[in-house]
Please model this.
Amino acid sequence: MRKKISVKKLVEALEDNCKIRGDTERKILTPAPIDKAQADSLSFCSRKGDEAKEMIKASRAGVIICSSGIKLARSDYQDRTLIQVANPRLAFIRLLQKFFAAAPQYGIHPSAVISPRAKIARRVYIGPYTCIGECEIGEGTIIHGNIHIFSRTRIGKNVTVFPGVVIGGDGYGFERNEENKLEKFPQIGGVIIEDDVEIGSNTTVDRGALGDTIIGEGTKIDNLCHIGHNVVIGRRCLITAMAMISGSTKIGDYSYIAPSASLINKIEIGKNVMVGMGAVVTGSVPDNMVVVGVPAKPLRENVRSK
Amino acid sequence: MRKKISVKKLVEALEDNCKIRGDTERKILTPAPIDKAQADSLSFCSRKGDEAKEMIKASRAGVIICSSGIKLARSDYQDRTLIQVANPRLAFIRLLQKFFAAAPQYGIHPSAVISPRAKIARRVYIGPYTCIGECEIGEGTIIHGNIHIFSRTRIGKNVTVFPGVVIGGDGYGFERNEENKLEKFPQIGGVIIEDDVEIGSNTTVDRGALGDTIIGEGTKIDNLCHIGHNVVIGRRCLITAMAMISGSTKIGDYSYIAPSASLINKIEIGKNVMVGMGAVVTGSVPDNMVVVGVPAKPLRENVRSK
Amino acid sequence: MRKKISVKKLVEALEDNCKIRGDTERKILTPAPIDKAQADSLSFCSRKGDEAKEMIKASRAGVIICSSGIKLARSDYQDRTLIQVANPRLAFIRLLQKFFAAAPQYGIHPSAVISPRAKIARRVYIGPYTCIGECEIGEGTIIHGNIHIFSRTRIGKNVTVFPGVVIGGDGYGFERNEENKLEKFPQIGGVIIEDDVEIGSNTTVDRGALGDTIIGEGTKIDNLCHIGHNVVIGRRCLITAMAMISGSTKIGDYSYIAPSASLINKIEIGKNVMVGMGAVVTGSVPDNMVVVGVPAKPLRENVRSK
Model:
């Protein structure tokens, strides 16, 4: 049923300055990891130098996207076709997006419970058993099923939210009174989720206490993360699985929070910071630092060219 | 649309022995954090001494609630109005509760799936797509939408449960049999949630294996916490985001479990204990201790006057 | 209402080579932990030697299942009845399963949203507000309510899935493009869950990027765990609360991941490995090792006879 795609068609879809080695008439049927590929598979190799050469030699993939930097003799790739580009993983991703990913289906499931005062753009998807309060939702956004979004949430364009996510639940704020009972700080702020954000399954994003909790443009949040009240996350950050961001903490653009890392409240994480896996961050971190450990300490500068 | 509230009205609502400095005729429109406030804002300052003085000087808030201990000259607060009280955050919370928080709406959403044998008090809220087994639920309790509560759960009065919470799922108990398969210890106990408890989004509270899992009166649980089977949490504890409380562990009254802390099973945490962020607690902890680290070790006595 | 069960009936249900001490005519009404038991309770004691003797002496249980290795005089157990077996906890579990656990109820709740192309075996349970894509689900499997399962998921026989679980959500894969935006690696793989698996409340199991995420036969996953894309977990493993398993990591048969442990991506955990509570595992672990700490280091060999 699936149609075969020729190397020519693949290359046309890449804007990259790419170089083809081997048979340009070859056709592929399916994408596959390089170590599990077959003759009709499209694969990629992100490694460089001899490591890449060995992976390519050992693979059975018909077509392999690899780095333009690798020097290969015909005997290295034999009857395979190579497409050499600047960033093989990115080129592979784009071919997946174009030829193999299902196109998003828009529409609102009849079981979704949506406030009559919500402002929902025309081309959105809202899945079954999702509840949405008085919110704004921008075009191209996909809200899967079994999601709960409280009022005072504003979601931008082309956002994706996975099942089990709760947005706008009350932040955690209490004060002991004269009788040692915990009195609740009413949480009356909102949540702003900018364009191109993705939020993984069962993550929670609390509403602000007075102001708003903000997730910046293009930031990607993984599953089971906690985003406390009044947190402000910058643009294009990676917040990975089970990261715990306590209330009022700020994270600068392009930063990376590794899985299971915990950030105490009211600190400032700079831009282009990397927080290591399981790190417990108890103080602010300046721009371009890598911090690791419990409690987290600086390891080195983050040299990734941003 | 919102009505302005005069300093006089604010002060009438506080039972505190409060002292007003400056214009008592001033009116405020909205609450705001002290560093983002405007002339029509009500703010508060929890700090003391010179730090408080600087914050008050720097703020544009029309009305600031601050500590009665602070000594201020007219030049420090100029045209602002100050309300000086014993506990500024608590006073501010009470004004929020009275003037700005939405009143709870009671009622049961028609889509809620509730066992005919459940005993639900009259004045409760149950949200859309929530499922409730053979349970008891007390007056004033708010069960939001997309929640799952199994049979044998007893929930007291004025409890709040946020979306995505699962109460009464099976505890985790298995035993390897002669063939090394894992046989399940049937989980036939229940869950008791006492009055005034709050449970944050996507938290799970497992049923007891034989007896019950118990959350004591006035305890507040944050998002994404795990409360294992047969755990017993005392009164007015703070269990913060992503805390992991393993089965059969006990926590005494007034204790504080910081975010991402993990407690091993079958230990006893005393009263008024503080467990630090990300701490991994592998043994019992006596009353009034602060423990931190991996594995957790005593840091000092907890001097908070409880 | 409940019927009393005689020691004779209990013993008939055990295939074990068991030895009865005391009154065989005695009847019990309810199972209970040994320290809370009454005269009409059935209890068990897993301890050995003097510790067991003391627990049995101190208990009020009418019938106690204990280890055949314990030497007891009549004065130790007095008017109690003892059933001595090789594995007391396993024997107790089997009596619970036979006499006290509710039989599973099969059937599909009318509110479940199921793809017309899903293949559901006849004898299954699917609870309210659960959404199931184009999946296969085997006989005897219980999918509780408020669960979301995406297409390309294959679930075996006698699997149990608790509320709030999300299966087949997109794995977390992004690449920075020329403009430093994060482009998404389309996630087009699936999830395979083999027979006899259990998945606890609010756990997330992501679909593979290209291939499949696999949970092996008889593995038991606790609440709030994250299973990343392309993870392969072997048979009969214990993955306990809040374990975080990053993408493409493999775990061998019979391994135990303690609560709150985090495993980095693309590593191999051997067979019969124990990972300690809160451990942060940053590299592969050979068979039969116990690793603990942050970062995790070998502690000793795992001597548990598997």
